[in-house]
Each structure stands twice: as structure tokens, then as C-alpha cells.
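input
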Amino acid sequence: MHWVIGAGAAGLTAVKNVVESHSTNYEVRGFEQSEEVGGLWATGRCWDSLMTNLPANAVMAFRDFPYPNGPSYVHHTAVRQYLRDYADAFGLRKYFAFGTRVTSVRHGGDSEWIIQTTNGATHTVAAVVVASGHFSQPYVPPIRGLPLPFPPTIAHSGTYTNNTDYTGQHVLIIGCGASGVEIAPEIAAVAQTVTVVAPKRKPQDEFFEIPQHVRASHPNLALREDLVHRLCVVDGGEYVAELESGGRVHGISRILFCTGYLYDYPFLHRECGISVDEGKRVRPLVEHLWNAEYPTMCFPALLWKALTFPLIELQVRVFLRVLKETNGFLGEVGGEWGRDERLRRARFQNGGRDAKYGHMLGEEHEAYVRRLLSIEYKDDDIPDEWERMLAVYAEAGPARLVHGADYRKRDYILKGRDFHVVNKF
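output
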């Protein structure tokens, strides 16, 4: 029996690929705490205007389920519908218990896992796919004077829906990650002033930047490379933000944290062998996937700055292939591959990479994907669509900086291992 926790993109493709393994030893059950498939895309954590920042038809489709014809960059509701259609097309819903949360996962010895759920049931399974995602626990940096719980004037981007509440306000946005670069200009369109405070960018952050032309079109939008050290409340309920550099931001009426999320697995017991560094890096893992202590547990979908659904599916398929080859490659996970993982981790640390970037691929993206492809396809030729996806991904990221707000007005036309782009601006 295989156990899948979560019915988002990773959980759905995990169940599908287990079912298609055509092995009586590969029964599968999935558990989802909500009442619907889709994970992040179905939970209400998508703000009203959110669209994909990658071309969905080119790099966000599972291997045998293309997106419907239409623009390459799509609204978040199209992704939600895509995942629902995927579940229905392959009959995946029947494998999930909805409205059921996993409360405990323990390693039971003899390569078994003991699972408990909110309905009081206990299950013993052979393998666990932890596909619960990493967008459920908002990260809020420690700031002196920050009122907790948040008053109505302070929020995290996970609860942001639209800019209505920010009309005419003086807004402080803390953080400038994937959400901040999208939300800041949207708020600036209606606010009196918007000040974005984020740490000095590192090379790893190159795409998390508000383009200069966007700032030029919103003269009320200012970006300060700094950290908020302390918040003070002054007469009238306004805030003053004291910065680490010694500077201040005065007259703040609203604050929005765009600081991302933490990896959080409260159901995993210590004997599972997994810990989470500062909520930002899951370890010890081999290739950001296998539990290095017990390789019958895997964590697809931890990665960022990487291909999305196709890579998640590849991770799942590689995990299943490794499980089948119990006397072969599985024995090597803690051997040469384990040593490789330790070397990579040491290189990241020696290069100044902190826990925040533990699961960011960035410049290692193509090498990582090809390592997994070499396991999945062995000596066979890599399918053309993978060569094309790698090429599209390498082109689409820099295009966001080159074309600015117009980058979503580009359609990717796909053919074999090739593609071309049609600009609609």
C-alpha cells in the first residue's frame, strides 16, 4: 500500500502514476484535508488577479494531459480547472478520502510506516508520498513591536485578495518575492504611497525584482533594500518602521507581508528522520526528494525556481522506479547519491547559500532535471518534449525582465522539441 498525503498537483500525479504501475503491490490511498482537489490552486490563497508567471501550455502540463487551447499565460482559475479535469479524466477522486487530515506518521520498522488520521483510523503502509505542499504556513519575520495577532491593518499575502482595502492608503510591503513583485504594482495603482522594503538582492533573487519600467509607471512606488527592525505605533494609529540601516518609513497606515511560506510537517514524528531548518529546508533528503534515512518516503514539489507540474510528475515516477528496483538503485540512495547530496549541501553552504535557498534550483535546474531523466529513461533517448520544456523554461524566466508587464502577452507555439514565441504586444 502506498500513502499519498495531499490532493494538489503532486498528490494527484502520485496517485495516477501508482495506479498506472499495474502492480498488485502498488495499491494506493490518498488523504486530503479539504473537500476538493487542487491544493494551493483551490484553497483561496490565490488573489483575484493572479496569473501564472510561466507559460502553462509549455511548462505546466503533465506528460499526457495538455492544457486546452488558449493563451500560454493563464488565470489561476484555469489552473484550478486543469487539475480538476486531470483528476476526473483519470478517475483519481475515488482514491482520496476528502475532509480527512493526517495527524501522525511514524516509521514502524521493517520498512513500514504507521499512519493515523483525524477519523481515528490507523494504517500500516509500505511507502509515503508527502505531497501536502508548502503554502500553508505563512512566514512572518521577527520584528520588534509587531502586534500579534495581526490587527485589521496588517496582513500576509496569503490572505490578500485585491487592492480594495488599500485605496488611498500609505502602504508598507515587507518582502519582494514572487508575490511581492505582482502585488506591489497592483496596490500602487490605488494607494497614495507604497514602500517596499526587502533585503539587498542576491544573485539567486534575480527574477524577484520589480522592473524599472513598472516603478517608473508608478511614481508612488518606492523600493528600499533594507530590513524592518522595529515597528512603532504613533498617535492616530499610524506605524513607523525602523530599518536596520537606521532609516525610517513614516506615516504607514497599512502593512502587507510578502515574505513567503515555511515548510511545515507537524504530522511527521522524529523517528521519521526528517527535520526542517528554520522552516525553510527539509533534510536530510537525497536530490530534494528521498528521505535519506528511509527512502520509502519522498517529498515531491519542494523545489522553487524550477519547472512545476512536469518536474513533480518526474520526481514521482523516479521515486516509484527506485522502489521497484529494491535490490539495485534503492540501495544506492544512502550510498553514492547520499554522498553526492552531502557534497552539494556543503557547496551551497560554502558559497553563502543559507537555508532560505535550500530547495531553490536556479542555475542547477537543468542538471537536476537531467539527473532524474537519466534514472527514468536510463539508456533510452530523452523525449523531445523534455528538451523543449528545458529550453522554454530557460527562455521564459529572463523574458520577464526583458518584456516587463508585456511578458504575459507572449504565446508559445510548440512542435516536437522546438518552439517559437508569438508576441501580442
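quick obs: The radius of gyration is 22 Å.
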